[in-house]
Design a protein that fits this description.
This protein is of the alpha/beta class and 280 residues long. It is built from 13 helices and 11 strands. Strand 6, helix 9 and strand 7 form a beta-alpha-beta unit.
């Protein structure tokens, strides 16, 4: 095996990468960290995204296909000592690959022009793990976009990137949009706004039974601890609760988001839904 070329955590290249763990540095450079084989593979396959890759000699050998794709994508690949990669990594047990990627966020206006049928709006989500998990759920449910308002966590927080498990690279995400602007723009684009709240007047099962969920829909999700403020709920066309049929007190944010998004996805694909394919 070749010897690592980067052996000192004090090198300028390593120090620059390590700074991206901080939000101010990410915003200034418009770069973020993607750790582990799954995230790096997705980044390398996303056009003009992966800038650099730090890999231990062992990881470069184990994930030779990922390293090859990274090089083909134009990324600079550095073989690094394990201590160097660990110094850049923000995880307890690094997997030997850390990529530096360009910001991916999409202007909100472009999302509106695409006339999305299913959107997740993270209005007051502060936990990066939850933000990344909701993004992953939105991707899995077939949403066309995710919007993070200016009151939500940084999309490029390393925990959010990890929790998205590559979904960050799959669908458009707008960031820093005021919730009022997000709701108004989506309504103008013909999207119905549903606020997810445990104290909502409308029941998700009832909405499905009434057949009201087959059209373009945006779900607005609130803070992990206190939900959505009244002024945000008032912006919605309906405030919907996920029914609790057992004895659980509540659902956590990411679980509730998955239930809501999949309910919409199913309704939109049912007969008469906005995704129904009619024979020609």
């Amino acid at each position: 095996m070749p010897a690592p070329e980067l052996i000192s955590p004090r090198s300028a290249r390593v120090s620059a990468a390590r700074r991206l763990a901080k939000r101010n540095s990410r915003g200034k450079d418009r770069l973020f960290l993607a750790e582990g084989p799954q995230a790096v593979r997705e980044a390398a396959g996303h056009a003009d995204t992966l800038v650099e890759l730090f890999a231990t000699v062992e990881a470069a050998d184990r994930y030779a296909d990922i390293v090859a794709v990274a090089r083909a994508a134009g990324a600079r690949v550095h073989l690094a000592d394990e201590a160097v990669v660990a110094d850049i990594s923000t995880t307890v047990t690094p997997q030997g690959l850390v990529g530096i990627c360009r910001f991916l966020d999409t202007p909100f206006e472009e999302i509106l022009k695409s006339r999305p049928k299913l959107v997740a709006v993270l209005a007051h989500v502060r936990d990066p793990g939850n933000a990344g998990t909701v993004l992953r759920c939105a991707d899995a449910a077939g949403a066309e976009a995710v919007v993070l308002t200016d009151a939500s966590v940084d999309l490029y927080n390393p925990k959010a990137v990890r929790a998205s498990v590559g979904s960050l690279f799959h669908l458009p995400v707008a960031v820093g949009v005021p919730v009022e602007e997000a709701v108004a723009g989506l309504k103008d684009a013909g999207v119905r706004i549903l606020a997810a709240d445990g104290a909502g007047q409308d029941d998700l099962d009832d909405e499905l039974d009434k057949g009201t969920m087959g059209g373009p829909t945006a779900w607005v999700f609130g803070n992990e601890a206190w939900g959505l403020p009244e002024e945000t709920r008032e912006l919605a066309d309906a405030v919907v609760r996920v029914p609790i049929h057992g004895k659980a007190e509540s659902l956590n944010l990411a679980t509730a988001a998955a239930v809501c998004l999949y309910a919409s996805a199913r309704a939109q694909r049912a007969f008469g839904g906005c995704r129904t394919v009619t024979p020609s």
